Amino acid sequence: MPSSLAARITRMAISDRLATRILLILRNSVIAEPPLSPAPGGHVGRSQGAWQSGSCTTPRRRRRRSRTRGQARPSSLTTILRRRVSMVRNYETSEGPVMTDRIDFFIAGSERSGTTVTGALLDKQPEVCGLQGTTVMTRLEHLYGLVCRVIRQGGEFEGVDPANCDSLLEFVKHQPVTPFLHTCYYNITFYENLMNSSLSDVTKDVFAHQAYLKGFRFDRYMARFDPANPSWANTVAAMFSEFVESTESRGRIYGEQTPDNALHLKVIQRMYPDVKFIFMVRHPVTGVASLCDRYRQVSDAVNQYRKPFVHFPFNDPEIVGRTLFVKFEDILNHREVTLQSMGDHLGFTPTEIEGEHNSKVFSQYVGKSLEWDRYFRSAVKYNEVERTAIYEKNKDIADLFYSADETAAIIGYQAEAAA
Predict the structure, then answer these.
(1) In DSSP terms, which residues pair with 254 in a beta bridge?
(2) Do 185 and 146 contact (CB within 8 A), yes or no?
(3) What are phi and psi of 195, to 5 degrees?
(4) pLDDT, tens digit, for every residue of 308-336?
(5) Where are the domains of the chain?
(6) Which of 208, 363, 342 is nearest to 280 (CA)?
(7) Distance from CA of residue 96 to its chain's centroid?
(8) Which are the contacts of 56, defined by CB distance < 8 A and separation ≥ 6?
């Protein structure tokens, strides 16, 4: 496929389809334009047409005879692109609620390490708006990956300099956000969350994604695009604000919880220089055992458990200094003290909260996740020899955060004895 046609197709399709659709288009070199709004007289321009090798399969003369006087000329791909970019620019002047221009803290860590319950506990504080599972950084990574794949296949991505695509960090540093990129980020976030709401095997994730999507407003999001400040910090905050508005959450301190934030700490710190991190830690014996319920194979569970620790920049004093490591077991054993340490880290004074959770998402999961029986429910499936083997595979992490006595108690835990 000629690179010029690939570029035109990419520009048209990205605002309507996910990354897989674009790549399919580029491979097959064929695209059918989505139906346009009927022009006066009822004609729909090129709704059934297809472009291949740079030209339309329908002869131009035949198309001219099919039109009657007063009907609009069928739109080209370039015209469609210009029309959509014009729509984006019009949104710049629309009115919307004043939303956050930043994200103050991010919760990260391995899956099943207590990131969700920690975010929910913080969200219960009046000064904190802590949202769970928005995956705003994961979606940014996916958009960056899409851009890179299009460029590697010889296409062009509007407004993107290939020199800025060496890494996600370089992309965030040097690539300005265009109206088109701003639009793409919204669409990828919306559609991937929509897919997750139907494909996830975790009930709370399904509930969260559906609750979030119902409150999204594209026009409000587009109104946040600022040509004078085309930064990714502004675009990501605009998307995060849609999650905030969806849940009607409010607070002075805004935070986001997704385990995979651990993979993007340097990128986050680049976007938000004053950001703070809470890195959740769970003992590898119970953490890996819990992950085995999802990944089945112990080796896969171990890799998933270790991934956030492998990516954490322990040699970066700036990141380390902004990170509070919180053990899930401390939340179970010493909740008030642990909450106070998180308050000191983030800059608020914890208060005892009674009554309904102030966010619509995950409120019913807080109590269930703070029970020891639930904490050990996966680990009790393994005997002491198997637990010891899991510990040996993750000895470096366990010995860094846990004493020998704490590890021995977890390896030797017996449900009957605890009861």
Answers:
(1) 129
(2) no
(3) -65, -40
(4) 999 999 999 999 999 999 999 999 999 99
(5) 3-67+77-91, 105-418
(6) 342
(7) 23
(8) 46, 49, 50, 63
- Biggest alpha carbon–alpha carbon distance for the chain: 87
Report the first-to-last Cα separation within the chain, whole angstroms: 67
Return the HEC string of 18-47: CHHHHHHHHHHCEEECCCCCCCCCCCCCCC
Look up tokens 């991010």; give the residue: 106
In whole angstroms, give the CA distance from residue 286 to residue 373.
Answer: 12
Q: In what order do the strands lie in the sheet with 276-281?
A: 128-132, 253-257, 105-109, 276-281, 323-327
Contact 186, 40 (CB under 8 A): no
* Pick among 3.40.30, 1.10.10, 2.60.120, 3.40.50: CATH of 105-418: 3.40.50
In angstroms, what is the C-alpha Rg of the chain? 25
Task: Name the pLDDT band for 187 (thresholds 50, 70, 90).
Answer: very high
What's the CA gap between 380 and 373, in Å, rounded? 10
Q: Where are the alpha helices (DSSP H) in 226-276?
A: 232-247, 265-271
Name residues whose C-beta falls within 8 Å of residue 12's C-beta, 6 or more positions apart in sequence.
31, 33, 77, 80, 81
